[in-house]
């Protein structure tokens, strides 16, 4: 594919390095299980409706590879070359073309019936401006009538007792994970302490900006997209005040008079 990369020199996103990329599929093994992946791929294949799809932050191809195997032509944008290198072990550039760049600003040739951004990754852009630009970039790549899909957690603010700055999300023998969130700036960090086989402990952290579903809707509106669907998960469970995540779909309007 003749790629046009327009990546800015600077992005607020953490850059995923070679070590992280090499470990990604094992570390996220739970996200590769058929129970997790199949409903997501079903949902996305249905929305693509036979047209081409573009994945923002395609990573190692967790979703793109099985989606392409369903016959959906898939392309990607990804900031980290090491993540793309891992994807290349599963699919060639002819099968799944990828442009290395920032999903807020990078463009690829073509018009897509579906653009999708999963696994909470909109949060990797850590400024509101960049998140707005990301929605605009999705809209830019959509054909009229095409859809933008986001999978995102609902910020777990309600789990914070007053005065406490951290909330654990995984406490097990092998791994301690907790988030710190700043209620003023909407900045957050996920901290991971992992016990290794040699007895040592590895620390890793990832930074993000959390956003509510309502802020997503406003960003979509700024990008000229209209809301079509919000469900709690890929199975289509209703989104309620208790939901901890959402799958949201916005649509690019058909041209006037079409
Ligand atoms: C949690 S992984 C998700 C990968 C894949 N979508 C999946 O579901 O397995 C987050 C990915 O987002 C990429 N990423 C982070 N910021 C980005 C940006 N500004 N533009 C493009 N990719 C970005 C990271 O390099 C990483 O590959």
Describe this structure in words.
The N terminus is likely disordered. A hairpin with a 5-residue loop joins strand 8 and strand 9. The chain folds into two domains: 178 residues, 3-Layer(aba) Sandwich (Rossmann fold); 49 residues. The two termini are 30 Å apart. It contains six helices and eleven strands. By secondary structure, it is α/β, with parallel strands linked by helices. Helix 1 packs across helix 4. The strands form two sheets. Strands 3-2-1-4-5-11-10 form a seven-stranded mixed sheet. The site of S-adenosylmethionine has 21 residues, from strand 2. InterPro entries: Methyltransf_25, SAM-dependent_MTases_sf. Keywords: Methyltransferase, Transferase. This is Methyltransferase domain-containing protein.
Layout of strands and helices, then pairs:
Layout: H1 18-27, H2 34-48, E1 53-56, H3 64-69, E2 74-78, H4 81-87, E3 98-100, E4 112-117, H5 128-141, E5 142-153, E6 166-171, E7 175-182, E8 187-195, E9 201-209, H6 213-222, E10 226-231, E11 245-251
Parallel strand pairs: 1-2, 1-4, 2-3, 4-5
Antiparallel strand pairs: 5-11, 6-7, 7-8, 8-9, 10-11
Helix pairs in contact: 1-4
The protein binds S-adenosylmethionine.
